[in-house]
Amino acid sequence: MRSIIHALSTMIIYSAIVFLSIFMSLYMTYMSLQYVSLTEYFYMRQAFQSAALNIPIIINPLGGGSYTLSYPGLRMGIGWREQGYIEVYINGGLSHNLSCIAVYSKIDRPIVTTKHIVYGINSTLVNDTRLLPKVMEFYEDGSTYILLDTCRLLYQVDKVTTYTGTIYYVRLFYVSITPHIQTDYGYEAHAAKFYLRESPTILNYENVQDLLIRINYGGNVKEITPSDLGASVQIDLTITIYNVGVEVR
Predict the structure, then answer these.
(1) What's the CA angle centered on 123, arms 117 and 125, to 5 degrees?
(2) pLDDT at 13
(3) For residue 121, which phi and psi values (nearest 5 degrees)?
(4) Residue 66 lies in a domain
(5) Tens digit of pLDDT for each residue in 173-207?
(6) Total structural domains within the chain
(7) Which of 32, 51, 102, 159 could make a disulfide contact with 83, Cβ separation 3.0–4.6 Å?
């Protein structure tokens, strides 16, 4: 009888040890995966911020060049989506419809629960090239996103008064993102290259009597008139569009 009790005790202790070993192994695996996920997320967060910092340099005629970010690609890749559009109405007619494309990376974990701006400001109208890009992080549909977009306008206004009257010279600048996602890149490292695809498109309009800009950002629409720019009629308008390519492999 005593030997049976001893055998049962040994079996119970052995089972408990096995159970604890399995539990600790699973727990350590889970914690390891959590650590790897967080490390990769914050790496991508910093990489997107660096890309945003470099966009003003890429479009600068005295800077130029390109910026390439490398990333592990273990749990997070890079994709793109439409974030909105910008419509420019001149003298009552629609002259330009500019699409707002954003690049993003996401991970299927609730790392953040609220929307937070990582770089830039929450405005569709800015007066500094460094504020043209914006990076934000948010939680949506079970995933945490890091998103970079340029869905805003940089404006400059000069007022010139002569004996014939006053003219406002309004210059608008816009960065259009064109993504190219490669699906076959062999054994090359994961990377995203930001570069100026072509010379800027410059559009000039003289004697503008009516100007309206409508910016749709994430479903929120804002209308901008000359008074918002510190201008009035008569306007000489110049629109400069920079096409920044994002090649992802």
Answers:
(1) 145
(2) 57
(3) -135, 160
(4) yes
(5) 999 999 987 654 444 458 889 999 989 999 999 99
(6) 1
(7) 102
